[in-house]
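Much of our argument rests on the idea that a fold can be written as discrete symbols. The amino acid sequence and the backbone structure tokens for this protein are reproduced below:

___
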Amino acid sequence: MPVRNRLAEMHPEITAWRRDLHEHPELLYDLPRTSALVARRLEAFGCDEVVPGIGRSGVVGVIRGRRTDSGKVTLFRADMDALPINEITGLDFASKTEGKMHACGHDGHTAILLGAAKYLAETRNFDGTVVLAFQPAEEGGAGGKAMVDDGLMDRWGVQEVYGLHNMPGLPTGSFAIREGALLASADEFTVTVTGRGGHAAVPHMAIDTTLVASHIVVALQSIVARNMDPLGAVVVTVGSFHTDSVASNVIAHTVTLQGTVRTLDPALRQLAHDRIMDLVPATAQAYGATAEIRYDWGYPVTVNHPEQTAFAADCAEEVAGACDRNVKPAMPAEDFAYMLEARPGAYMLLGNGDTPMCHHPAYRFDDDAIPAGCSWFVTLAERRMPLE
């Protein structure tokens, strides 16, 4: 079954919703306009329940099918938050708020799920219940975890979870997925090196934290090079290096390093953590300094479950005629991972065409992908919970 005719008819309307969201981006949990707009639309569609405030500013809509004898409950998720980026697209509907931009396509994800919601509320051609989770704070705020912790799964008896994310570089409206690890975990660390500041002309009277921190940066590279299986995917990156002085003739007393650890394997994730905790203080001690580490465990690996992945791919093939079932995993992170830890499910990639990558100030969501995305969600509902 290809793109639904009704959804093709709704395409201009859904596009208008998406562009309105794009003009008014909001960040993390601070989504008063976005959450209210989503709730109003769900109420207008005739959803059986519309519940705001789940996970602080998330919105849940519930649509019951013509029958609910099966007892099946399937959750669809879309993220709503934008990024702290200045938009440079020059679009007529570009962000009206300086320093905020929908640079990851969450406006598109929200519009797609709203379109699917309107269709499902009109037709109700399924035996069971669809739960629609519009989530805040995907961009670093763990809004997915907040919704799960707020009782999302248990309150509505959710059995399976599905979501999608646009993917620049894949043909618009195409689909790609893989069983198992699709996206990486994302942890962060901060290292504070303390030595003894002094005059650059007499380094022997100081403990040079710049030198010590530089050796720590180099030592951290050995984790991937010498501690990890070469066939495993692990990234350890130091992205920030700050001394407490900017003078050329001063040896800094402290240096702060910040970095990230990403991997597709929970065991390697733990190993990377353990090696950082061992290497950093030992390296500092070797040069007479000390080092304190703050390690923040972030999003887990996004792991697609086998049965649900195959089913999601089957539905994508019905919509688009094909689905890449073995797309390469990637190292960005995604907090839908928390929902996949709570319930079996699958996360699908939806082609966005030849556009700049996500998080780029010139990124553009391709509205031509909307009918395919909406049709995929609808097909999931009707095939997973058939009336016959």
Observations:
- The mean pLDDT is 97.
